[in-house]
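step=encode ok
step=design start
structure_in=
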């Protein structure tokens, strides 16, 4: 079998990927456009030399070594399979394939021996309840630490559901999972700044105690922090708050605030270059993105990227149009936004960091499209909207599959009174929703969300932001439930 670059550059089965999402890197001039044949298990792959050097540490070292092999037109690999190498080539060409069990093992082997970082990242991004144990075992076998840790954390979050299946793992692997901290459902409500003498006991970040089935206080907001019309997100076990406002003129708080759940401490960081409130915040790979928002009653399309390590903001590609409080989610570590247009049209765009570009993924036409939320699970995007006619206490839901590019109308209607689906977060194969009346956990099934548990609601009014954090030390301070 002979496979060439042109074969691999066919459009991916994953909507919004393929050649459009091909990783753009600066190729070494000496190798740019130079092809090399790679023989694996009797199969020959013809690949661009620079592409291999940019994405595989093995080939980078080989081509720079001065050894005889680096000058040969054909290189023979003895330690990996053709299946694993083909998966690696698909990934470094920008595809995001969904893999079966055999492909996962062979891909992990290839990623380890050839040091293919994009492949490790892809395997990490497609961990789910069906493959997490295999990912974990394969990562341990081949020494892929990033995949090992991510798989273990996923298993930890689904421990009760996977406990029986974990018997196939060695004691060391089981012990490592059991030593980890599971993620906890956390809510940030709407609060304005205050002064010390008038510190409001309700200005808190809260978590759901699943043992007690009730809400508890995690931390109190700093005096000057505002979550009113703010952008809020979580990244690397920290909460970030940007663009909170105070007084009737919507003055923006001077700095952003960060809560570190691991150390239980607050710190400040710089605001975006363009003052903005009512923006959407989303975190990805060490950066925070502030999407759109408003300033002086003007809606904006600009987007800024915050580098957490350097505490600096920079402008990136603008949104397709001016937007505030745009629905946004991450799915398979990819950023998606949901735009609502006249005539009941919904458009989904993906942001491609490597190209700094927004691309349209799909359009859905549905009657009644006011009010919305979007969450991701596996390779599915779930879009919630208001119910039929004027029934705003019910939600309708549609599912878009990124791999097949198909929309599916989910069965049933989902009552806002039974858990506001406009505030939702996914953990494992469950999705948590919350309002004042109830906190509801649904199990995510193929054609519907099935109610799993109904628990105590969150007794606060106003907007809410939901996240998952790993909490080493949980506060036992009661939430406090004043009457409204």
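sequence_out=
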């Amino acid at each position: 079998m002979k496979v060439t670059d042109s074969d691999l550059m066919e459009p991916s089965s994953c909507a919004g990927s393929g050649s459009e999402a091909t990783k753009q890197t600066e190729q070494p001039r000496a190798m740019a456009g130079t092809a090399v044949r790679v023989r694996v298990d009797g199969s020959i792959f013809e690949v661009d030399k620079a592409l291999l050097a940019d994405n595989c540490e093995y080939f980078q070292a080989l081509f720079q070594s001065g050894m005889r092999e680096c000058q040969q037109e054909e290189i023979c690999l003895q330690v990996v399979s053709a299946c694993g190498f083909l998966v690696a080539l698909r990934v470094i060409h920008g595809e995001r394939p969904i893999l079966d069990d055999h492909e996962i093992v062979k891909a992990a082997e290839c990623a380890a021996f050839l040091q293919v970082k994009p492949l490790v990242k892809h395997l990490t991004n497609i961990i789910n309840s069906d493959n997490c144990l295999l990912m974990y075992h394969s990562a341990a076998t081949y020494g892929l630490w990033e995949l090992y840790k991510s798989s273990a954390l996923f298993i930890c979050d689904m421990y009760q559901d996977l406990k029986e299946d974990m018997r196939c793992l060695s004691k060391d692997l089981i012990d490592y999972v059991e030593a980890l901290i599971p993620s906890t459902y956390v809510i940030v409500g709407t609060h304005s700044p205050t002064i010390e003498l008038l510190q409001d006991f309700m200005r808190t970040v809260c978590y759901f105690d699943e043992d007690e089935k009730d809400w508890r206080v995690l931390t109190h907001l700093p005096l000057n922090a505002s979550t009113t019309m703010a952008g809020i997100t979580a990244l690397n076990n920290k909460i970030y708050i940007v663009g909170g406002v105070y007084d009737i003129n919507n003055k923006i708080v001077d700095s952003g605030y960060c809560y570190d759940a691991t150390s239980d401490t607050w710190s400040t960081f710089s605001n975006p270059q363009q003052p903005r409130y009512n923006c959407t915040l989303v975190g990805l790979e060490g950066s925070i993105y502030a999407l759109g928002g408003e300033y002086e009653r003007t809606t904006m399309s600009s987007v800024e990227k915050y580098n957490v390590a350097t505490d600096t903001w920079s402008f990136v590609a603008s949104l397709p149009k001016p937007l505030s409080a745009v629905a946004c989610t991450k799915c398979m570590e990819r950023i998606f936004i949901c735009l609502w247009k006249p005539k009941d049209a919904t458009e989904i765009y993906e942001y491609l960091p490597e190209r700094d570009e927004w691309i349209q993924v799909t359009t859905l036409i549905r009657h009644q499209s006011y009010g919305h939320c979007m969450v991701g699970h596996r390779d599915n995007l779930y879009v919630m909207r208001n119910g039929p006619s004027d029934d705003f206490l019910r939600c309708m839901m549609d599912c878009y599959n990124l791999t097949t590019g198909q929309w599916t109308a989910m069965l049933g209607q989902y009552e806002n009174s039974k858990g506001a689906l406009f505030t939702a977060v996914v953990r494992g194969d469950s999705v948590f929703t919350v309002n004042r009346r109830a906190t509801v956990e649904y199990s995510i099934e193929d054609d519907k969300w099935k109610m799993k548990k109904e628990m105590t609601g969150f007794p606060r009014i106003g907007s809410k932001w939901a996240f998952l954090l790993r909490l080493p030390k949980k506060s036992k301070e009661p939430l406090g439930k004043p009457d409204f």
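step=design ok
step=annotate ok -> DSSP finds ten helices and 31 strands in the chain.
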